[in-house]
Design brief:
Strands 12, 13, 14, 15, 16, 17, 18 and 19 form an eight-stranded antiparallel beta sheet that branches. The protein contains 17 helices and 19 strands. By secondary structure, the chain is of the alpha+beta class. Helix 9 packs antiparallel against helix 14. The protein folds into four domains: 88 residues, Uridine Diphospho-n-acetylenolpyruvylglucosamine Reductase, domain 2 (2-Layer Sandwich); 117 residues, Uridine Diphospho-n-acetylenolpyruvylglucosamine Reductase, domain 3 (2-Layer Sandwich), CATH 3.30.465.10; 107 residues, Alpha-Beta Plaits, CATH 3.30.70.2190; 88 residues, Alpha-Beta Plaits (2-Layer Sandwich), CATH 3.30.70.
Length: 455
């Protein structure tokens, strides 16, 4: 292929691969979506190299699909039309920590754990915690969130600036270092969540936070989903500063116990984390006890030391892997909808009812503090009836959410799996989004086949 030879004129051959094993590694993510091989994998080391790749791709009209670590859940990194898989793993430098501004500049291949390891030296941490040790570029591209968003917000809220290379090779910045701006359109908001369809991120400036003086984790178990959700609403209404408040249903707790060697009660459970100064935090905990006492609360237990707290959150983060381990030979399918808090209990009860009707293997977890929940499904992709049931189940919970003012995806992104719901969710706003895509990527070479159906 002529363009590969052209790429090798400015990127060393050892960073240009057509090895079949490497191609297969870049043909898939963590989702159930069908893999598709790229023609070549490129490992850039700078924004200048990314710009050159895009100029050549634009000239030859070659598709380019950005790749982080492949932890996405809706097929974002699958190169549906072949072409170039642009692997950012070598662009993994923490460029600068600005502790007095509570900012950090990083390359897109830096992982969440690597960043927090460095920030700890400065008494700081990065808040967004999606579970997987994803790259920050991938997290920005999908507008990730996770367990801490109830207090700190989602990925988009942390972004001050993105250096992005456009389809034609132009390099631009979307923001600056200032805490706020009323100047021009909000390009940070546009590019965060664009899933590699508008440009390739080569540098991120992100907001960071001081490490809290005290952290306490707890488990609250309930006799019903209704009581658990009511507890969430009452805790948030009282102004209690919880950093995380996660729901794990009894089916998920069962799998978690098997996988993580825990012995939690197999009941609807809230995992809660309190952060702050000691005096204020202890007051919040006492207030929470009073709130739970008025509800159908079975137990309220604490993990007081770091080891117990890490084990609790490790169990929550590994819930999906607990299902994968518990159902060998089946593929993971994770749903992802977000609703107003007032509609959440009804949505989860409906989801559990339909899950039972279809007799599917799975359970429900959720970042219930912001109305986001997931059903973890394990499906036999060779069983067409089971695949159909899973698709119908996903359709049911998405339509339920959209009818009540929610979204088809709270954090996983659209990718391949949620394209079919874009018209229903966005209506007349969808052509505006498509016009932006057409303007910035007229040849449709940036991650084609994602978010929108190709015209």
């Amino acid at each position: 292929m002529n363009y590969i030879s052209e790429l090798e004129t400015f990127i060393p051959k050892e960073r240009v691969s057509t090895n079949i094993t490497i191609l297969e590694q870049h043909s898939k993510d963590e989702s159930y979506h069908t893999p598709s091989l790229p023609n070549v994998v490129i490992y850039p080391e700078s924004a200048e190299e990314v710009s050159q790749v895009m100029k050549i791709a634009s000239k030859h009209k070659i598709p380019v699909t950005p790749f982080g670590v492949g932890s996405s859940l809706e097929g974002h990194v699958i190169p549906l039309n072949g072409g170039i898989s642009l692997d950012f793993s070598l662009m993994d430098s923490i460029i600068e920590v600005l502790p007095n501004d509570f900012l950090v500049k990083v390359q897109p291949g830096v992982t969440r754990s690597k960043l927090n390891q460095e920030l700890k030296k400065h008494g700081l941490f990065f808040s967004v915690d999606p579970g997987a040790d994803a790259t920050l570029g991938g997290m920005a591209a999908t507008n990730a969130s996770g367990t801490t968003s109830v207090k700190y917000g989602i990925m988009r809220d942390q972004i001050r600036d993105i250096e992005v290379v456009l389809a034609n090779g132009t390099t631009m910045h979307t923001g600056n270092l200032a805490a706020k701006s009323s100047s021009g359109y909000n390009l940070n908001g546009l590019f965060a969540g664009s899933e590699g369809t508008l440009g390739c991120f080569t540098e991120l400036t992100l907001r960071v936070y001081g490490i809290p003086e005290m952290i306490v984790a707890s488990r609250a178990t309930f006799h019903s989903i209704d009581s658990a959700i009511n507890a969430v609403v009452n805790i948030l209404s009282a102004g209690i500063q919880v950093a995380r408040i996660e729901l794990i249903d009894e089916l998920s707790i069962k799998q978690v116990n098997k996988f993580s060697d825990t012995n939690y009660d197999e009941m609807p459970t809230l995992f809660i984390e309190f952060q702050g100064n000691e005096a204020g935090l202890l007051q919040d905990i006492e207030f929470t006890k009073e709130i739970l006492a008025d509800l159908d609360n079975h137990a309220f237990e604490f993990e007081k030391d770091t080891q117990g707290r890490n084990k609790l959150w490790g169990a929550r983060h590994n819930a999906a892997y607990a299902f994968k381990h518990g159902f060998p030979g089946k593929q993971l399918m994770t749903t992802d909808v977000c609703l107003p808090l007032s509609e959440l209990a009804g949505a989860i009860k409906s989801a559990k009812k339909v899950l039972k009707e279809y007799n599917l293997d799975g359970g429900i977890v959720g970042h219930v503090g912001d109305g986001n929940y997931h059903t973890t499904l394990m499906i036999d992709t060779e069983n067409q009836r089971e695949v159909e049931y899973a698709e119908n189940y996903n359709k049911h919970i998405v339509e339920y959410a959209l009818e009540r003012g929610g979204s088809c995806t709270g954090e996983h992104g659209v990718g391949i799996g949620k394209m079919k719901y874009q018209v229903l969710e966005h209506g007349t706003a969808l052509p505006v989004m498509q016009a932006i895509k057409k303007t910035l990527d007229p040849e449709n070479i940036l991650n084609p086949g994602k978010i929108f159906y190709d015209e």
